[in-house]
Amino acid sequence: MTHEFESGFFVKEPAWHRLGKVLNNPPTTEQAIIEAGLDWKVLEEPIYRQQEDEFVSLPTHKCLIRSGDQQLLGVVSKAYHPLQNSEAFKWFDVLLHEGDVTLEAAGSLKRGKRIWILAKIQMNPVEIQEGDAIQPYLLLHNSHDGSTAIWIQFTPIRVVCWNTLSWASASRFEEEKKRKAFRIRHNSNIEEKLALAHLALDLSRRSFNTAIDEYKAMATKPISRELFELYIGNIFSSDSPTENWAFPLIQENFEAGKGNGGKTLWDAYNGFTEWLDHQRGKSEVSRLESAWFGDSARLRIKAHREALALL
Prior knowledge:
This is Phage/plasmid-related protein TIGR03299. The chain is α+β, with helices and mostly antiparallel strands and about 300 residues long. It folds into two domains: about 1-40 and about 80-205, no CATH class; about 215-310, no CATH class. Helix content is about 35%, strand content about 30%. The chain is built from eleven helices and twelve strands. It has helices at about 30-35, 85-90, 95, 170-175, 190-195, 195-220, 225-235, 245-255, 265-280, 285-295, 295-310; strands at about 5-10, 20-25, 40-50, 55-65, 70-75, 100-110, 115-120, 125-130, 130-145, 150-160, 165, 180-185.
């Protein structure tokens, strides 16, 4: 539902959901938090229950409230420490000041319950094949309802059509073990853990170089119609992918999608990710959330794994 995208900005052009403000230039941290509609605080308030003739506060839980409109964000344990939006943006400050990244996008979903910040890593885009370039990003996403930890991860994006790609031969949790993603729990040591900025940037740059090698290998792998059907079937875990309603759309993307020619494994992989980002789901907003945080993120990882298995 469109109301789940509450506010946000993108630099120079909107992403696939076509929502939010479009800025002409990358903003500073101070500008970004305002343009994203995230210039509010998470307030902590006690929860009361009636006990005989008086109200007493619960010793185990508290409410998280958004300042300004008093929107209820969530109910969490007393040990939970919210990461304020201003602190999330400050995580990028040292990298911004040193010219390592620029802020590309940020926004609020589900009435402030989930926020995200996307920063472009200052590396030259790399062409996988002529006219088909990949750009590396860092994505920070956080929940204000207690549903998730704070995640910071490397995210490659295909420039020609803003497909979010995967370099996740494993899930986020497996990536964390391999130090390709960071999960920061909501506790009193958040500020100390946010000092991982330089490490995250370094690992992202190395991940990007490895991802490029994998993508180029896909681009040199010819694929037949039969192998294409096998590939899509393996992603969906189905013996008959043509019976899936999505298959005709994915096949069309494979053969004639943006930057595709229907000839290589790279075309097949991008045909699938184009479907995830631009065609799957009931609304543009649901595609955005699913692409980065939901089921589409899971399918993207599987598509990457299955592509590597065919190399």
